[in-house]
Please model this.
Amino acid sequence: MWAMIATWRMAVEGITKASEQLESGIDAGYAVETAVKMVEDYPFYKSVGYGGLPNENCEVELDAAYMDGDTLSIGAVASIKDYKNPVSIAKKLSEEKVNNFLVGIGAEDYAHKNGFERKNMLTDRAKLHYEKKKKETLDKGLNPYDGHDTVGIISLDKNGKMCVATSTSGLFMKKRGRIGDSALSGSGFYVDSEVGGATATGLGEDLMKGCISYEIVRLMKEGKHPQEACDIAVNNLDKELIKRRGKAGDLSLVAMNNKGEWGVATNIENFTFSVATSNLSPTVYIANRKDGKTTYEVASKEWMDAYESRIKAPIEI
Ligand code: SD4
Model:
């Protein structure tokens, strides 16, 4: 038995490739890295890796993390610029005894010393998005903090090992140096091979307030099915945020236990996620919430085609 679950439609090519590796008996950590790297490398996914949207200074600053559910080792980088695969740097950092979470110049020095590939991560297309958003914000006073699409992937291999990895350019138009939940253990991700794992996408500032990935793993440890754990954690955090602050940001989570059972919860409309297991070929689902319960359906061919045209459509300024 092996399994993978990931936030968003954009992970499906990556998990398709990584599925073949898991089927052939490859390690969960290697497979999750392979899958995240594919998302990082694809220029049309505008919130992860190459082609990721820049901060308000038009710089692409990336956050990524990796966790091994057997050893509980964690590696993370944040606000790193000009490196091709932040997830691989995070994975390498997870092997260090200390200094596992590095930011900015420190992360770049480490990547350089360890031979990671440098790359200008700002594409012309991302620059156009930036120009357009800047103009719209000036014209209409829009909140620039919208649009979120972090990739988070959980893997379970045939030996029962589980790993999780995340990668993101964070919030579009964020302040220089702003770090979200994706690099933060317990908030953007958590995994324990004796229980299961969870990973988040949405408004980092709010996801952090509930340490929500850890909370879901904790609920699974108490015996909850991943679906129930996801619904409880997302509903509770959503409710608390609304009660105390008047509103809740976007919260979307996927989780999987060490039997390969999985769950999802979201407080937004049409949250997409991707799953592959030894019994299920890679599939994209669309999740919604109704009366505190998450429901989901397989994304239709029409939806998949429309997505493809949307992400490649010319940008009109
Ligand atoms: C962040 N959670 O930096 C990330 C953004 C995100 O999907 O999820 N995008 O706050």
Notes: The mean pLDDT is 93. Residues 198 and 213 are 5 Å apart (CA to CA).
